[in-house]
């Protein structure tokens, strides 16, 4: 009887553990759905004139593409062309992304992705990097959405992005020279911490919300961002 009771107890604990394992992803998906559906800055409307941005996705990660130079900000001082492998590729737009340091540096291609790295990036924390890519004349396509914001909204967006750069004692950004994915991009040290709440895509959503643009209250997935922008186009 003692043996049977022991096995029953072990099985009961195992079932509880399995229930918790199944419940956690379900709760996460529920939080993602609710966070993407609830709206911050609900009264915002896209102005007819202002600063033209582009939001790009690769299906997993999102970037904010901003003009290299406007009256509000000259990004060339913070992200100079000299920091990339081929300075001649510097264009009139700069794309900004945010992510886990280990994931960025150790996953140049999806073939390099390991379970350990993916798991740490999904639920862990740690230091982060800002990924900068220089672009020329971006256009809308299946992976890119055009977004016009007012000059005041852009000033707030600039502050959010700029304040995420770690600066040295001389006030200069800190590039990881030679550690980009290609010839036109580079990583910079960031002061913001990465965690399962502030994911790479939530950074994009947080930046847009801070600027005053209509966005979900929590946007941890690429779809959380792009779905909202597609709705804006259709309204």
TrEMBL record:
<protein>
    <submittedName>
        <fullName>TIGR02117 family protein</fullName>
    </submittedName>
</protein>
<dbReference type="Pfam" id="PF09601">
    <property type="entry name" value="DUF2459"/>
</dbReference>
<dbReference type="InterPro" id="IPR011727">
    <property type="entry name" value="CHP02117"/>
</dbReference>
């Amino acid at each position: 009887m003692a043996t049977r009771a022991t096995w029953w107890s072990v099985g009961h604990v195992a079932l509880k553990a399995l229930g918790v394992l199944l419940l956690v992803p379900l709760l996460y998906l529920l939080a993602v759905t609710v966070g993407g559906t609830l709206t911050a800055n609900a009264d915002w409307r896209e102005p007819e004139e202002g600063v033209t941005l582009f939001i790009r996705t690769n299906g997993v990660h999102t970037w904010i593409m901003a003009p290299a130079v406007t009256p509000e900000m000259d990004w060339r001082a913070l992200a100079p062309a000299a920091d990339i492998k081929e300075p001649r590729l510097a264009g009139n737009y700069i794309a900004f992304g945010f992510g886990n340091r280990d994931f960025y540096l150790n996953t140049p291609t999806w073939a390099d992705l390991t379970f350990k790295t993916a798991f740490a990036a999904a639920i862990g924390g740690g230091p982060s990097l800002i990924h900068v890519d220089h672009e020329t004349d971006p256009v809308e396509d299946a992976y890119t959405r055009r977004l016009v914001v007012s000059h005041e909204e852009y000033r707030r967006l600039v502050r959010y992005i700029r304040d995420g750069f770690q600066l040295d004692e001389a006030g200069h950004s800190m590039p990881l020279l030679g550690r980009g994915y290609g010839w036109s991009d580079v990583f910079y040290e960031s002061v913001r911490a990465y965690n399962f709440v502030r994911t790479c895509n939530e950074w994009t959503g947080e930046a847009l919300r801070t600027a005053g643009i209509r966005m979900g209250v929590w946007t941890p997935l690429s779809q959380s961002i792009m779905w909202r922008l597609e709705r804006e186009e259709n309204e």
